[in-house]
Amino acid sequence: WLEYYQIKHIDIVIRQILIETNYFRSDVCQNNNNLFGMKLPSRRETTAVGKRRGYAVYEGWISSIEDFKLWQDNWRVTEETDYIKLLQRVGYAQDPYYVDKLKKVQIN
Length: 108
Hints:
two-stranded antiparallel sheet, single chain, 2 strands, 108 residues, 43% helix
């Protein structure tokens, strides 16, 4: 689905999903269908249908991916290194070591 929706930097995004969902075990993933730890946006279009415990709620994982695509489309980032810098610059995660953790996630 990531390729279908033309998600940029899929290798990094897969790592983001694994971190954000705690390998698909988190409450936000299981109960909100939220693969990216997304909050309900206030200024952009969204596919979220509400919020629960401070995080966006989606009808399913596909609508979570669609919303992430809407988020990505707000940024004109073509290079992988620029995407990583973007994640740091916009404060994508509250964890100051988020980018370091992304680099350490192994994808088989």
